[in-house]
Write a structure and sequence with these properties.
The protein is α+β, with helices and mostly antiparallel strands and about 900 residues long. The strands form 4 sheets. Strands 10, 11, 14, 15, 16, 17, 18, 19 and 20 form a 9-stranded mixed sheet that branches. Strand 12 and strand 13 form a beta hairpin. Helix 4 packs antiparallel against helix 5 and helix 9 runs parallel beside helix 27. The longest helix has about 40 residues. It is elongated.
Length: about 900
């Protein structure tokens, strides 16, 4: 028998095991235990310094190679006697900007375990030395006897010893929206989940009703909430698909470029060229080819995506989460508060032996409405808020919605006596003066209350209740229960005087049956539509909840997560416990709903889907969701109902707690990924064009571009158009495509081969104009024409990459005003270094005639129609 099984022990066995008694511990014993086992607090994970986080930004392989090339270029040029710092300065500026952006995002992250600590009860009433004391929760130890009452936060895990109509709200821990009615009964099964351990009270949960007494059996990290804190500390952050793709692309490109640079260096040596000159050439090619601006550009595009999402109530905490959403294939969603309102609501009312929807008009004099309002302990605050048990507040809210003046009504029917609710009889009654008599209003469980009724209210007339009536009511009760409604019965009777004994035998007999009320935590109206849109986009929604199986199943059907005949797709926590991780991995695709689950279950479910190489998003608002939010590829917390713990473990927070917002965020994420792909296609095709131009020219013994030309082209034509491409609008049909998943990368969907053929075209055009101009105008003019052509080709080409397959002329080519501005600005900066006296000398540029400029512009523009022809071929091939 382990400590987690205290719920299976008798009170005597528990007290013996923790070496305590009903009188509590002595001060000395408590002090000794505190010194031995430590304070009742949650531990924090190891904190990383700001410097360590900053240095992490420089661990990227591509960044390391770039910094090495920068240092090497300075060293070699210095050895040559003419130090050059341009490349090194540009590289270090880009690298530094990237690091600052990265660290700024990480600095926004809250500490999840700190948020857990804040949930702890500040004070608790404890028995010490036979007296009741108020102590800080940190000072509580195993064996302490703690008193609980409405409004308290449970300070530690406790085995209950006394309960008096005690109800504890545990949704933050279990996900169940209705407060749990506590009892001293020992569960029948050793496999009972947290939500079924009714003789236990758990740390950080809230007492909503009644009183209780319990003995502490676990403190600090040994509590259920402590286990969650430990999972948060030990759970490793998984890299997002964006980070993995960028790492792979960077390594692949860098290795390839280093090989090319080495080959060019070797060829130059074999041609008898100076080693230092060829080393500088090789470094220039490496700098030209490596898209050093890519990390910064992708970061900027992601940051712009976060601004767009924020306007749609999706708040991004970690930049890569923007793109990850676009690749999401599975959304594991908590039910309570995410798919539902986390607010009990009356949905059906039965009177005159007929079910009525709550939306139908109702007579304010109807007895069922009066009883549900009178037999009710809900209080109305000064601010007009309803305070009390969620089930009871739902009944009062229903009356308010029907325009009942609550204060006038309660004043007209003051409560003069009551028989409080008790779990063994499952009823409560209140007594009110009315017309020189007294009205007894009783609400309770239908099966119990019906046995106390001898009459029934039928269309305003009271008549004896028949077996047919009882059969009809039993059928209606079952019908509502199968829809996951929580059903309560209402009855009443009038008596001449207040009963002499306020007991169930004297008060709750010979009642008149008034009706039934069915309540539920309803699904969000927009959630079903959002799930349908997600389904169309190839995204599967999985519902995970701490609620009972029937409730979960009914809500899932109403939301469209499962169909009418898919009951087999619902799995309980107990059934999940019986499955090994391997069995779950093999069968996880069969299940769409998980009921009565624990935090450990949620992490297992997320990881089972991830084992199928799926991109998994997890939404949630409770403490119990935090580990799975952290384990998922993207965790989505709730901004309104979410605990600070769940927000701290999330990558994204929904400001409106609306599942529909997730769908909007997915669409934005897909747009962001597509735009990053466009920037990559633009940058890599341009860089490939530069490398091939230099490679072929070196092979032919030509000096086609000076290092400063390459540097200026990279600086002017790479950055601004690439950023502008990140502001492209969403392409049509983006939410009808299947998710790209983890198997996809930045070069997927035609981007890879587009980079290759477009880079080759840029190189051929540049080499072609140099070859022609060299023979007709001389090498200096040919170099300038090649320089101008390569720069302008890239600017014209920016419009080609607005879509991989679609024709540029099937859309508005100039719809993106930022691309237009970037093109004009970059072209101006390119022209300045060729035509402004003094500046053109610094850039070794020759003056060109009008005819020569015409040739340059014509050849550069030719990239547009040639790529259009290639796209036609690609579209035909793609269809086939």
């Amino acid at each position: 028998m382990t400590k987690k099984d205290y719920f299976l022990l008798s009170q005597e066995e528990v007290l013996q095991d923790v070496d305590s008694s009903l009188a509590g511990l002595s001060s000395k014993e408590a002090s000794d235990r505190l010194a031995k086992y430590g304070e009742n607090m949650l531990q924090e994970g190891e904190k990383r310094s700001l410097l360590a986080k900053f240095l992490d930004q420089f661990k990227d392989f591509m960044i390391i190679i770039l910094m090495a090339a920068a240092v090497l270029s300075v060293v070699v040029s210095y050895a040559e006697g003419h130090p050059e710092y341009h490349d090194a300065i540009m590289i270090m500026i880009v690298v530094l900007i990237n690091a600052v952006l990265g660290i700024a995002q990480e600095a926004k992250a809250e500490e999840a375990v700190n948020a857990l600590k804040k949930m702890a009860s500040p004070l608790a009433r404890v028995m010490r030395d036979g007296h009741t004391l108020s102590l800080k929760s940190e000072e509580i130890v195993v064996g302490d006897i703690v008193l609980l009452e409405a409004g308290d936060v449970v300070p530690a895990d406790m085995r209950l010893l006394e309960v008096n109509t005690l109800k504890i709200e545990e949704s933050a821990l279990t996900g169940e929206s209705v407060p749990v009615e506590k009892s001293l009964a020992i569960p029948n099964s050793e496999e009972s989940g947290i939500g079924d351990r009714t003789n236990m009270a758990f740390s950080s949960t809230n007492v909503t009703y009644g009183r209780g007494l319990g003995v502490v059996v676990a403190t600090g990290m040994d509590t259920e909430v402590g286990k969650i804190a430990n999972m948060l500390v030990s759970e490793k952050e998984s890299k997002t698909p964006l980070q993995e793709n960028q790492d792979q692309l960077g390594k692949w490109l860098t290795i390839l470029i280093l090989v090319i640079a080495a080959i060019i260096f070797g060829i130059g040596l074999s041609q008898g060229r100076p080693a230092t000159a060829m080393l500088l050439t090789a470094i220039s090619i490496a700098v030209a080819a490596i898209p050093e601006g890519l990390p910064a550009i992708s970061t900027i595009i992601l940051a712009l995506g976060t601004q767009s999402m924020a306007k749609q109530n999706a708040l991004i905490r970690k930049l890569p989460a923007v793109e990850t959403l676009g690749g999401t294939e599975i959304i594991c969603s908590d039910k309570t508060g995410t798919l539902t309102l986390n607010q009990m609501t009356v949905e059906k009312v039965v009177y005159n032996n007929t079910i009525h929807n709550a939306s139908e008009p109702i007579d304010l004099d109807l007895s069922v409405l009066k009883v549900m309002t009178l037999a009710n302990d809900t209080k109305l605050s000064k601010e007009g808020q309803l305070i009390g048990d969620p089930t009871e507040t739902a009944l009062v809210q229903f009356a308010l919605d029907k325009q009942l003046n609550l204060q006038e009504f309660l004043s007209a029917y003051p409560r003069v006596a009551e028989v409080p609710f008790e779990s063994d009889r499952k009823m409560m009654s209140t007594i009110h003066p009315v017309n020189n008599a007294y009205l007894i209003a009783t609400k309770g469980a239908p099966d119990i209350l019906l046995t106390r009724c001898t009459h029934i209210l039928d269309n305003g007339a009271v008549r004896p209740i028949t077996d047919t009536d009882k059969d009809t009511l039993a059928r209606l009760n079952h019908e509502m229960a199968t829809q996951a409604l929580r059903v309560l019965a209402m009855s009443y009777k009038e008596v001449d005087a207040v009963p002499s004994e306020l007991t169930t035998e004297y008060v709750e007999q010979n009642m008149v049956f008034a009706g039934l009320v069915g309540m539920i935590d309803p699904e969000r109206k927009e959630a079903a539509d959002a799930i349908a849109v997600a389904k169309k986009a190839g995204i599967r929604t999985i519902m995970i909840t701490g609620d009972h199986k029937d409730t979960a199943q009914a809500i899932a059907k109403r939301l469209g997560i499962i169909e009418e005949n898919q009951e087999h797709a619902v799995l309980t926590g107990a059934e999940l416990d019986a499955m090994s991780d391997e069995a779950l991995r093999q069968h996880v695709e069969q299940y769409s709903v998980y009921a009565r689950v624990s935090p450990e279950h949620k992490v297992r479910i997320v990881k089972a889907w991830q084992s199928h190489n799926k991109v998994v998003a997890m939404t949630g608002d409770g403490v119990n969701d935090a580990p799975s939010l952290k384990a998922a590829d993207i965790g989505v917390g709730m901004g309104i109902t979410g605990t600070e713990v769940s927000k701290g473990a999330s990558d994204m927070v929904l400001a409106d707690d609306n599942f529909k917002t997730i769908v909007a965020a997915v669409k934005e994420g897909r747009k962001v990924f597509a735009n990053i792909q466009k920037a990559i296609q633009y940058l890599l095709s341009a860089n490939l064009g530069e490398v091939m131009t230099l490679f072929v020219a070196t092979m032919l013994g030509w000096t086609i571009l000076e290092p400063i030309h390459i540097l200026w082209i990279n600086l002017v034509t790479d950055v601004f158009p690439a950023i502008a491409l990140g502001l492209e609008e969403t392409e049509k049909g983006v939410m009808t495509m299947k998710p790209r998943g983890k198997s996809s990368n930045f070069l997927s969907n035609g981007v890879g081969h587009s980079i290759i053929y477009q880079g080759i075209l840029e190189s051929l055009f540049t080499l072609g104009i140099f070859w022609y101009a060299k023979d007709h105008f001389g090498v200096p003019v040919a170099e300038t024409m090649a320089f101008a052509t390569l720069g302008l080709i890239q600017l014209f080409h920016a419009y080609n990459v607005k879509s991989v397959y679609q024709s540029l002329f099937s859309m508005n080519p100039f719809a993106n005003k930022w691309l237009n501005y970037a093109t004009i600005g970059s072209a101006a900066m390119l022209l300045i270094v060729m035509i402004v006296p003094g500046v053109n000398t610094f850039f070794s540029s020759s003056s060109l005639t009008l005819a020569q400029w015409g040739m340059v512009v014509g050849v550069a523009f030719a990239i547009v129609p040639v790529v259009e022809i290639c796209k036609i071929v690609l579209r035909i091939a793609h269809k086939k």
